[in-house]
Give the backbone structure.
Amino acid sequence: MQIVVLSLGGSLVNPGVPDSQYVSSLVRMLRQTKYHFGIVVGGGRLARKWAESARKKGASEFEADEAAIEATKKNAQFVIDTIKKDVNRVVCQTFESAREQGKKHRFVVMGGTIPGITTDSDATLLAECMGAKRLLNLSNIDGIYNDNPVRNHNAKKFHRMSYAQLIDLAGKNDMRKAGTHFVFDFLACKLIARSKIEAHFVHGKNLLDVRKAVEGKPHGGTVVK
Ligand code: UTP
């Protein structure tokens, strides 16, 4: 049994309202492969909103992170309810429980865990914990660029990167604030490097590319190894 871990962006799962059509079509495609999946769901806009309103009430960054983690768990439960079969029934709270649930089900789903990190790091820790050698980062960006492709239209996409290049780029973008956007969390970059986890960055809605990445085949996104 081979496990692939997905860091599933909250912006895909819940762009404003939960998108069951998208999650269903993603899961349908995943079922057609031969793999088992560990899925960590992000908070997206919901996490940013909850962190922001906590801060307005005077919350510390720790507490703002806690509010954002609750948003990731809400999105994770939505993903579980959409998968329905061959999946844990409630969101796993720890990596160890996810590993145990992964022995019983084809899909195991969790959200955030502790303040100070993001679901990118959670996904990487889950990959280490479950012994997965491949991780996919699914977001609404189709790969890693040398600059923000939304602001800079001349930004260039990397098709292949080393761990050292990714660590360098992520370090420049790391602000460590609840609900902010990183290319890929700096800690997550360090973790994939230490365990030599092959990381694929693809647009989550491009299911052809997602499938290729799941199978370790060439695709239009970025591969880090
Ligand atoms: P995300 O992983 O969703 O952040 O966690 P993101 O980078 O905004 O990703 P998208 O938009 O979903 O793709 C949201 C926030 O939740 C807190 C952090 O504040 C993070 O920015 N969080 C998440 C934690 O503190 N710990 C966790 O384990 C996970």
